[in-house]
Design a protein that fits this description.
3 helices
Length: about 190
């Protein structure tokens, strides 16, 4: 019984430290690394079997993925040239992207502009994470992973995404990685 009380007392001592925001990675100076913004421009054309997007819907969905992956908050994702009108599904929906990703300053590479504090943070794309993502977006996540994610600085990628053409049943979105992203106060 005495051992139990010692462990309980230790828990009460350590528990507040876990709740203290000063113990987060963002406040740990050793977790910070200087980085530099990299500009990217890309014309994303979606070609899938299961889901169809309007060009404006595709632009909105990709913006969500870009921000969740760690792009700077000023992402521009605009509908591309589409055959269908605004809000109408298009088999070849397009979105034009302009966004910035943070890259760690490497040894010997002089920064362009003022360095920004960055850190590695975990990112997870699953059904409803981010909340706008659903199983029907499986092929979109695959194409984002193949065509856009290489523009980010990531590590530890784990891809268990499985998309079954022409059906949502059996499809799984499960893409996880660490992304080098700006600290909240350094995102501007």
């Amino acid at each position: 019984m005495n051992r139990y009380w010692k462990l309980a007392a230790l828990g009460w001592v350590l528990f507040p430290a876990l709740l203290n925001p000063r113990t987060s990675l963002a406040d740990d100076p050793s977790a910070r690394e200087p980085g530099n913004w990299q500009k990217h421009e890309y014309s994303f054309q979606f070609m899938g079997f299961t889901s169809t997007y309007s060009c404006d819907g595709l632009a909105d969905k990709i913006k969500v993925l870009l921000l969740a992956a760690g792009a700077r908050h000023d992402v521009k994702s605009t509908p591309g040239a589409c055959a269908s009108g605004f809000g109408r599904p298009d088999k070849f929906a397009r979105a034009d992207l302009t966004f910035y990703t943070l890259a760690p300053l490497g040894g010997g590479t002089p920064p362009e502009g003022k360095p920004v504090d960055g850190q590695w943070r975990p990112v997870s794309f699953t059904n409803r994470s981010p909340r706008e993502l659903a199983v029907g977006d499986c092929e979109l996540v695959e194409q984002f992973r193949n065509n856009v994610l290489p523009m980010f600085t990531i590590r530890n990628p784990e891809n268990r995404t499985t998309c079954i053409p022409y059906q949502e049943s059996g499809s799984v979105i499960d893409l996880r990685f660490d992304s080098f992203a700006a600290l909240a106060h350094g995102a501007h």
